[in-house]
Design goal:
heterodimer; A: 283 residues; alpha/beta; 5-stranded parallel β-sheet; B: 309 residues; 5-stranded mixed β-sheet; 13 helices
Amino acid sequence: MLSINEISKIALKTEKVRLRLLEVIYNSRSGHVGGDLSVLNMIAALYYHTLKFDIQNPDHENRDRFILSKGHCVEALYCVLESLGFIDSDTLNSYGKFNSLLAGHPSNKIPGIEFSGGSLGHGLSLGVGVAIGAKMDNKDFKTFVVMGDGELNEGAVFEAAMSGGHFKLNNLVAIVDRNGLQISNSTEKVMTLEPLKERWETMGWEVLEVNGDKIEDCIKVLDSINYTIQKPHFIISRTTKGKGVSYMENALHWHHGVPDEVQYKQAVREISRSIEEWEGKIS
Amino acid sequence: MKSNRQSFTQTILELAKQNKDIIIVTSDAAGTVTLNQFAEELPDQLVDVGIAEQNAIGVAAGIASVGKKVFVCGPACFYSSRSLEQIKVDVAYSNSRIKIIGVNGGVSYGPFGATHHCLHDIAAIRAFPGIHILSPSDPVQMRWMTENLINYDFPVYVRMGRNPVPVIYDQGFEKFTIGKASVLKKGTDLTLVGTGETVYHCLEASEMLGQAGFSVKVVDIHTLKPIDKEMIIQSAIETGKIITVEEHSIYGGLGAIVSEIVCQNYPVPMKILGIPDENVINAQPQDIYKYYGIDYKGIYDTALAFLKD
């Protein structure tokens, strides 16, 4: 278990990435900032704590696999990958510009990204396949798939969910960024998802729930996964869309809104305060 | 006679017994593909995801990412429509080197009706960068094709029919090479360009046309993408007239591909034989071929009129 000091270091790093994320979106004038901000804690907890990988040997066959199925929030992943050295700052600064390597959705031409994607409802099938492949070769790496909650409207997710349960893929972890909003309204108004826990349990998944707005809880829930249970694992990460920027939180507009200069400066001030708070907790 | 799907399954079973990295993914379609023996003998190398073609493609791409040689097998009509986006994104865009084996393509489901006919797959899948398209004409070629596909370093879609077909490649023809068209007969008056199961009918029609005094070249386009552009241009130069024959919509299939090349490089008169823009009549495949004039007799009639034109 991590100490408070170690958790604070991860949280500080994550808040610095949050600031960078806002900068990238502000400069590029594009991105899906609301979902980026809600999912960032979980991506950070995975990359800074849970996932096994070697930046010097990124294709190592025993690396854990990460699939960002909610591909429209790739900016959050780009910023984390930059912080780890998978992509350099010049590349990230080119986002949204002519002929950039970085599109608004993942491409596996980018170092550190396993599969191209962006159309919703694809990632879990890929994850099921990777997990089956690992078992075929008796490899013990794990596969993590992050989905959006609106994404669960897609039928293909349930084809994949049924197969994950059927094949008892205990080496597979699906995480839903449950921020409660999709592009046009709340998830429950657009298409009822609840009772989410029970629905996934009946498909053969072990379901865990967490407050995804707290990175310490994200770390804890990832540490608590019991891989000896012969079921795939589904984490409902309850989050706030636009997390960390007061005027963006729980506001539909910020699904893919871009801040103006005044808004950007306010966001920078708010995230900077959070950075200072975490700095104060590190001994 | 045996079907191309049986040729595929017999060959892949032999190969998979020697190579445990060969994996079949299917969607409650082992029987449809004639994979029952494979399922019985190599159950650990077959993954059945149930009636879920979208999932099958994603799962296959996932399994392939850990180094397996993955073949996804099921009805062409469903893989080329229901899981089209997965083919676009998870296979072509991601460069997942899986092989999608679409069986019972074209009109080979016969009286099953329009939902099961597959007349759009070449047009649809060809538009995705990075994926290759193959269309075997007989069981011998199907065997060669399967052997080649094990280590072929591109994503591939293979379309084939359901029913037994005559053998063509037992007559000393050169072994097939992906990307190179096969010339089955030389000629100077007209080129018949076929793909898949229409190739046999092109050959038969060419014999009849020979008896009528015409010299007809026959080309088998078993690789629709990447297409053998040089062979098509050469045929236009040599014979001055081309007829394409396909078990596909006349929109966006072999005829359209050949036309693109001919009209931009060496324009010659052409005719495109295939399925018109309508839902196919309900009938046995051979009767559908006859009705739309893509059997040897229909090809002969069109060719004779074209040659006398």
